[in-house]
Design goal:
POMP protein, 0% strand, chaperone, extended, Ump1, disordered N terminus, 8 helices
Length: 140
């Protein structure tokens, strides 16, 4: 069989078949971590949504300016570089700083809010390393 061991594991009975479904379904704590109450709440300030999407709007403005100055090829090349850099990350259970992405955007010399107050050791996505790697590889 040319499909290999990983495809045999994927063809086995999925974990979801053993879990309860419907209104009383449990939260998978090992794979998804603790639930965050903050994500269910509305923004506490009108500018919070604007600040959350700031980098997206900044990239769009930079791409439009680059297109007007250099033509269509420049923003397309930069978007391909962004996509390639976003794919390279650490293991799923480790926090990734995305330093290469910051360098492409020109933010590598700036100290921002996330650099000081976003402590990875207090992250809510930290979980069991073996479970997270196996889930990312499709073994679970």
């Amino acid at each position: 069989d040319s499909r290999g061991v990983s495809s045999l594991l994927k063809d086995s009975i999925p974990i979801n078949d053993f879990a309860a479904s419907g209104l009383f379904e449990g939260h998978d704590l090992l794979r998804r971590g603790f639930t965050s109450v903050k994500s269910a709440l509305l923004p506490s300030h009108p500018l919070e949504l604007s600040e959350k999407n700031y980098q997206l709007h900044q990239d769009k403005t930079n791409f439009d300016t680059l297109r007007n100055i250099q033509g269509l090829h420049a923003p397309l090349k930069l978007q391909m570089e962004f996509r390639a850099v976003k794919q390279v990350q650490r293991l799923p259970f480790l926090h990734s700083s995305n330093m290469a992405l910051d360098t492409l955007r020109g933010n590598d010399g700036c100290i921002s809010f996330e650099d000081i107050l976003n402590d990875p050791s207090q992250s809510e996505i930290m979980g069991e390393p073996h479970m997270m790697v196996e889930y990312k590889l499709g073994l679970l």
